[in-house]
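seq:
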Amino acid sequence: EQLHRDMQSMDADLLLGIFVKNEKSRLLNSVMSIHGKAQDSGLTADEFGIYNKRHLVPLGEFIPLRFLIEFFNKFVKIPMSDIASGDGDQPLLKVAGVPVGLTICFEEAFSRDLIKDLPEAKILVNVSNDAWFEDSIEPHQHHAIARMRALETGRYMIRSTNTGITSIIGPHGEVIDQLPQFEVAVLKAEVQPLSGATPYVRWGDWLAVVLCSLLLLGAGFIHYKSRSQMKNKIS
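struct:
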């Protein structure tokens, strides 16, 4: 409630990464939207919207086939290692009245899940914790994946991270602005909500499957024709 009042005093909206518990008392990795802008005033249930992470990290956020090693878990209690996944179909959160396509951490690597939010989502938002990987190549790979998602969907991508790389990515995959890693800073930028659907949003991975199949068929046909011509020359 205090955060809500703070947002109202600043006429701003806030997306906040948190852990919440579901009805079975299992943790969910979530993002909460707190509305304070004037056009969002008067909201009740939507004052605190929640998005729950759908695609969890194996061995990081959950243990596959956990029931087989339950005895081990009784002795080694690893915090945040038994997180529940969110529903596959969740209502989009809104920021300043604009629906956003949210991903948490490495979820943005799975474009087939992200495009479920499109074309309704006008902006993409990713919040990540890459502190685990320190000054390695992983944060840069993660950032490159985010750029690909922006390009595929034709949307601006806002990335917020704790150690980097925090950035604003344009709808063509270009980096508009970014913050240096491992520094406390604030990134300010303007982004444009966009509509419409790219070919990838419309057809997803099927487009790549069809194109690859056509290439294989074409290569097979060319190989068959060349072998036939060689046989004719020999005979």
